[in-house]
Write a structure and sequence with these properties.
Elements: H1 6-25, H2 30-59, H3 62-87, H4 93-116
Helix pairs in contact: 1-2, 2-3, 3-4
InterPro entries: DUF6490
Keywords: Membrane, Transmembrane, Transmembrane helix
Transmembrane segments: 32-51, 71-88, 94-116
Length: 119
């Protein structure tokens, strides 16, 4: 059985409490509730993938580590796009474009760091 640090447990408790408050505040707005639930699910999957990646690195399993790296990049890119899609419409057009450009730059830089730079 895997043990998690106290800080990890506190972080998840804060995430759950914040999500519960967001869902309570968004009652009647199915899209907002779905966004919160999807973001929480993606964060939980990202946490699991990172733990598996660390385990694969400790065991020296490069093949599994490469596949997990892809999942980590995809989940982090998904979260970046999800939050940009919520923030950009609230901004003036120039700022919204900057939000999307920064999101794209983050995804591209993450891809480069994970897959194209020296391992």
């Amino acid at each position: 059985m895997e043990r998690h640090s106290a800080l990890t447990k506190i972080g998840f408790c804060v995430l759950l409490a914040n999500s519960a408050l967001a869902i309570y505040s968004s009652r009647g707005h199915a899209g907002s509730v779905a966004f919160v639930l999807a973001a929480d699910a993606a964060l939980a999957l990202l946490f699991v993938a990172l733990a598996k990646y660390e385990r694969a690195a400790e065991e020296g399993d490069a093949a599994a580590g490469g596949k997990i790296k892809g999942a980590v990049w995809a989940l982090s890119t998904l979260l970046t796009a999800m939050f940009a899609s919520r923030v950009a419409p609230l901004m003036p057009p120039f700022a919204a474009a900057a939000v999307w450009l920064m999101s794209a730059a983050t995804a591209i830089a993450g891809f480069w760091a994970f897959f194209l730079s020296n391992p």
